[in-house]
Design goal:
Length: 351
Amino acid sequence: MAGCGNDGGSGSGGLDVGIVLPTKDETRWVQDETRFQEALADSDYSTEILFSQGSSAKEKENVETLISKGMDVLIIAPHDGAAAGAAVEAAKDEGIPVISYDRLITDTDALDYYVTFDSVAVGEAQGQYLVDNAEGDGIPLYLYAGAASDNNAFLFFEGAWKALQPKIADGTFVIANSSAAEGLKDKAELDRQEIGSIVGQLTTNWDPNEAKNKAETHLTSAGPDLKGDVSVLAPNDGTARAISDVFASDGAVTSYTITGQDADMASIQYIIDGKQTMTVFKDVRTLVEDAMGMAVDIIDGNTPETTATYDNGSMEVKAKQTDVIVVDQDNVKAELIDSGYYEASDFTGLE
Ligand code: BGC
């Protein structure tokens, strides 16, 4: 059990809000669990959080468990966006409203709302950071992507490409590790299939080990012209730390600029230590607040406020979208410590 609270919210006697998160193995979702717990400590609504541990079967089982406990609203971040359709359809069959959380569930009309960060903006911030820090031309650019089963991986790459492509086309960057991206380098806008071909080649599956192995393979086959001062698009912090370690240990790489996202505690330490260049801070407290706010609106019979729509392949999903913040050595203290997100004592070498 991870949720808490009295049952007093809906008065239905069952569970008010069921929350299903993808896996404890990726730091991001442990952050979400913590922030849900903090937000719900004094809540009148009963909640329960279950993890799917990277398995769509387990995810469906979790939804069924929560249905059997009488949940009124489901908040779910899918492991696999398309496969999760079956799980949310089970909830819909019971008349339970569904909120897709952070990751969009695709190819089903059994969704009511989507609460998310602006994921295209995340990718664009990563790409733009590399562009802003590029000096000279012919800079080797190593690209990495998230899991192909996660709709966000497409949105992140779409955003990154928007910023990077003009600078690949004009010779500032030279793509070091993707024939698929190289073949599309003159196209400013890629369709989903084209992004899929690049993501397929560069996927880390959100797994630091897979990221490490890929980076090692890439550096082993790269000649001296693809070393020196390099730029690296890493899709999130977990993979960024693994990829950074590989680049740092290659004597022919003199410097690397590398992106990330999530403001994982371990990556904040990497940024302080100069081992990771930036992260995109997604304030999970806001996402939790928005998701719970929506759930409570639904329970109370009110219409939740939305700010955008997302096409999930079957329907236009009404969404509430949150902005993101770029963090590097210059503003890490202001954004993450002074803001109260983390404690200074969690880190060493913070000025
Ligand atoms: C989330 C990221 C996270 C990644 C891996 C994405 O869907 O938006 O915050 O790093 O999944 O868990």
